[in-house]
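Follow-up to my earlier ticket, as requested here are the two runs.
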Amino acid sequence: MSPTPPPSTEYKIALLGFGNVGQALVELLLEKKQTLKNELGILFRVVGIASGSHGAALNPMGFPLQELLTAYRTGVTLDDFSEHPISGSREFIEHCGADVLFETTPVNYQTGQPALDFNRLALESGMHAITANKGPVVHGYRELTSLAKTRGLCFLFESTVMDGAPVFSIARCGYPGAVVTGFSGLLNSTTNLILTRMEEGESQEEAIAYAQSIGIAETDPSGDVDGWDAAVKVAALITVLMDTPYTPEQVDRTGIRGITPDLLQEAQENGERWKLVCTARRDKSSPQGIHALVKPIKINSDSLLYNVMGTSSILEIESDVLGKLSLIEKNPSTRTTAYGLLADFLNAVSDYQS
């Protein structure tokens, strides 16, 4: 006898941001559709999709997702799939009628805007807010978490650091009563890839061009190369894991522009490697009681960081009771980032149902 399927609940979904991650999320939703229904009783209908430069669409009946995705990738705008024109992101959120908003718009390191406002508006409109954007976490974590709680909703953000790896879930569920005393790791996969390829003989310019060619570095790579992406991830981890508001500007930050092939070769001859290392430690003499650093450091083979190469990343979390816990993510992709969003969705609706 086959098991009785669980009772089903349908959720209306909207996507704000439809770049590589948003498209990967739609693919993953389609792939997991039957599993979600059969094993969890979760049905979904995508009622809104908005892109920063290729239109926006609303349809309360839901979109034919594979048809839309195929057409979009051939240059068809989202406007062609909409029941009526949408003039901007705020109108999109206010009129989409969704239960869950996935926000994947570009990050603003300094203020978190406008994504911070987008997530706030989603919660105020009765939606779970799920983001892959580090800005709202750094600049609005306490506000958005409190707002979500008062509305009986969730503000979740697993994909903001280490793609889909369960960094925040581990800290939230696996450390009850513990105090995170610090962490260290390699959090920017782009710079890790650049340094790996420079070790193999490429110049920094050649390595950056390769990272751009495979889509992990932006046309302007300064956010990665100058350490801003790493710094905002450090700030997000401090804000959540160490329960201390922290901004990227407070991180002692040095990028990798000064790392030359000669420095890499010299390090190799001494059994070492240069890595863009991220660290945070509780320190009463530092601002906010925490000292945070993003800096190229020579690592020897005794460190777990030594063999983390290419686009892989690692985070080592230290606490007052468990010592050091290491989480390594091997060669992530937009699919892994999309999985972080999907996992947040499943956790949000599970909490909502309970």
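Run two:
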Amino acid sequence: MKRILARIVLALSTLVILSGCAGKMRYPSYYTLNLPVPPDPPPPQNAKATVAIREFSAPAYLRRGEIVFKASPESVGFYAYHRWAIDPCEFVTDSVMNRLGASGIFSHVKRYDGRPDAEYLLSGRLEKLEEIDYEGAVKVEVAISAQMTKLDTGAVVWSKAVSEIGGVDKRDVPAVVSAMSNTMDRAMQELLTPLSVEVTCSAALKRN
């Protein structure tokens, strides 16, 4: 009888401990960047070129899932309970594709699937997407690079790299993600704005 009572007491104690641990469990929060929706593309006029977008690459630490912060230029830290809901590289690739589709520069914009059925191939790299916690106030940094090649020749017709710094209003992760969204928007705009000129010049040279 005493053994049975001891087992019951042990089982109840275990349940209490487990329920206490469950009450202290912390679940991660998930975030995504929020960029303005591109406007509807203008009516097609002289746009004849087609482009395929290869998925952007990034350093391995940016693809772990956690939001990144840097307490010094040499250190890389991760928020264990604050994570990206979507791979940043996939997000950047889709955003670039949507912006080029809305620009009216190209007659067709698609994801690159290995087939040579587009005139141009755009490849890029997300270099930085991180919170900066040194040199004064909290900031965020976004850096992107990209280049466009002719698929048939491999010749580079355009390339550019941009880096943008944004301020953070509050010292919390939602404010950091909001600042990253605004900074990413500026970086993409700066990256893609001169693209129409380059493509137009390339097409003109081809005709001549």
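The only thing I checked on run two: The first strand starts at residue 29 and ends at 31. Let me know what else you need.
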